[in-house]
Fold:
Amino acid sequence: MFLSRHMPCEECGESVDRSAATSHVCNPERLLDYRMFRMRDEINGFETRFHEFLSESRGRFEAWLAARDVRRTF
Structure:
């Protein structure tokens, strides 16, 4: 069986040489990009789920409560 010399880092997705895997340090920007990529379906569906929540009685109450709290701070 053929084994690739490089494997993706589980945290950031960068292709890392197997022999250097223990010394690999994830780039913070790449790490964030990779995490956002892995969450893309959840992020895309957020607005739909948010509007569904606001159409329910609990969501309407939370929106009313938030508006009331904002009015009290001014």
The longest strand covers residues 6-8. The radius of gyration is 22 Å.
